[in-house]
Amino acid sequence: MKLSSYASILTDKDKDNPTVISLLDVIRRQAEEIEQLKDEINRLKNHPRKPKLKPSRLDKKTKTTESKKQKGKRPGSKKKKKTAQLEIHDEIPIEPEHIPEGSRFIEYKNFVVQGIKIEPYNIRYRLKVYQLPDGSYVTGKLPEHLDGKHFSPELISFILYQHYHCHVTQPLVLEQLHEFGIEISKGTLSSILIENKELFHQEKDQILAAGIEVSSYVNVDDTGARHKGKNGYCTYIGNETFSSFESTESKSRINFLKLMRAGHSDYMLNHDAICYMIANGLPQYSHQTFIDHLGTYFANDDQWDAFLTNNGIVKKHHQRIATEGALIGSIVDHGISKNLVIVSDDAGQFNVLIHALCWIHAERSIEKVIPYTDQAKDDLDRIKDQIWFLYFRLKLYKEDPNQKDKRRLQSLFDNIFTSRTHSATLNEALKRIYRNKAELLLVLDRPEIPLHNNGAENSLREYVKRRKISGSTRSDFGRQARDTFTSLKQTCRKLGISFWNYLNDRIGKIGKIPNLPDLIRNQALSPT
Fold first, then answer.
1. Bridge-based pairing state of the strands 354-357 and 341-344
2. Residue 384 in contact with residue 429, Cβ under 8 Å?
3. Among candidates 455, 460, 461, 483, which has minimal Cα distance to 164?
């Protein structure tokens, strides 16, 4: 029997019995645990799994309400000339089949056909060699953009575009090139995809540094990313102007703070570091040790670990708090604002600096509630409607923030999430959300931040797709290249730059497309 069917067999007396309701709640939790175990068994057996939870309808509800107020045609429905801006590479005049004598030519009626040519284009460079009067030799030099490679920049760009943008696997790229008539080995193709990409890696690292330097908030999330046959994680940090991906073996708070250093490897004991340690429960007897070393800089992990050991900070829990504090100190010391908002789905490792929560994830705890009585069902529907209304009002507040609406929305939040219903499960869900009031209503003080974390989840779909197509990475070069080109691709998209043009510009050393970090800074300075 399905769990939702238990309510139908309850008598009126049972529906009012708190013991019966509590037992049904126990059954619900056990059923959820059984489903999780089934999913784990299916995963281990490589069987398909059921979706854990239906997508939230919260944002769709408000979008539907907004769309009813809009009038006129939908965006993008206006007709436009599709070939007006096309570059014409060839023109072929066509005469009518029969032209009677005395006819007079009036005009051309144009018919544009778009096409593409995919064919080998091989060049033989004949380097002239001269013997000088002194007996030495001088030889002509290859063009600089070839960089000594036997493949043109356009071909290399095509390979990278197919693999990193179109998710074509390496064996299929190799087969495709062979069918096009390109002579290339499997090892050479692998080298083109992952090796000698230092310039790309440097630009990717600078993207994160520039992005968090000029941003007032970032969205963060992580997902699984296996490497060398072991479980790993990929962390996303970004917003509407940039994307940065980094794969690591851990997804702890220390790992996240290390990523937030944006390429730096140091630790710093400053006021922010010590305040963090005290606020997070570092024992009082340890405080003086760090205060005595205020302003001390540690260049790397080895120096920091030696400092902790030499000063008797040996318990793992204490080392963790101290390390997190020193990383906070490093982040602030490198110019990242202490007022930077981290928007997440309530994963504990992201709760640093100023933390904001995603409303979509918060509302999911309400979606999980299963009512067992008619009264509980009515209460659940009423609470959902109230949350949808509050969410819609918060979206309007972002457009026109003011003190009057701020107080009204705070009061509305309290009324919704402190109310009592006929469902014990729903009451507990409301209490959990109410405890996160400050993080859910941070938008009232910072209206520029988003109400949800959808941007991070959408960006991480890139990794989910690649994981389904290609599985895990096997080499460190391969993992680094995957992170780098995914970051560059999504940042180009957010900056309105063609990733194909970007690859051709960088590999061909054309220099028309500016450095992406500079574009991020310029966009932050430009008026909206």
1. parallel
2. no
3. 483
Residues 232 and 337 grouped into a single domain: yes
Residue 408 is assigned to a structural domain of this protein: yes
C-alpha gyration radius of the chain:
30
User: How many other C-beta atoms can be found within 10 angstroms of the C-beta atom of residue 400?
Assistant: 8
**Domain count across the chain:** 2
Residues 491 and 399 in one domain: no
Helix (H) and strand (E) counts for the chain?
Answer: 21, 9
pLDDT over 90 at 222, yes or no: yes
Instruction: Give yes or no: residues 332 and 381 share one domain.
Output: no
Token pair belonging to 277: 């340690």
The encoded tokens of residue 186 equal: 């499997």
H or E segment to which residue 237 belongs:
strand 233-238
Instruction: State the Cα–Cα distance between residues 444 and 504, nearest whole angstrom.
Output: 44
- Say how many C-beta atoms besides its own lie within 10 A of residue 29's C-beta: 11
Same domain membership, residue 340 and residue 219: yes
Task: Specify if 314 maps to a domain.
Answer: yes
What is the residue range of 474's domain? 207-352+453-495
Mean pLDDT in residue range 281-297:
92
Question: In which band, very low, low, confident or very high, does the pLDDT at 77 lie, cut at 50, 70 and 90?
Answer: low
Q: Which pLDDT band, with edges at 50, 70 and 90, does 242 fall under?
A: very high
Question: Coil, strand or helix: which one is 267?
Answer: strand
Specify whether 273 is located in the same domain as 300: yes
Q: Measuring CA to CA, which residue among 231, 182, 178, 237 is closest to residue 208?
A: 237
Please, which residues bridge with residue 129 across strands? 139
Note whether 284 and 376 are same-domain residues: no
| 282 to 28, 273, 313, 353, 443: CA distances (angstroms) | 39, 12, 10, 18, 31
Q: What is the C-alpha separation between 412 and 437, in angstroms, rounded?
A: 12
Q: Which two tokens stand for residue 222?
A: 């992580």
Of all helices (H) and strands (E), which one includes residue 297? Answer: strand 297-298
Q: From the CB of residue 384, how many other CB atoms can be counted at a distance below 10 Å?
A: 17
Residue 336 sits in the same domain as residue 379 = no
In order, the DSSP letters of 407-473 are: HHHHHHHHHHHT---S-HHHHHHHHHHHHTHHHHSGGGT-TTS-SS-HHHHHHHHHHHHHHHHH--B
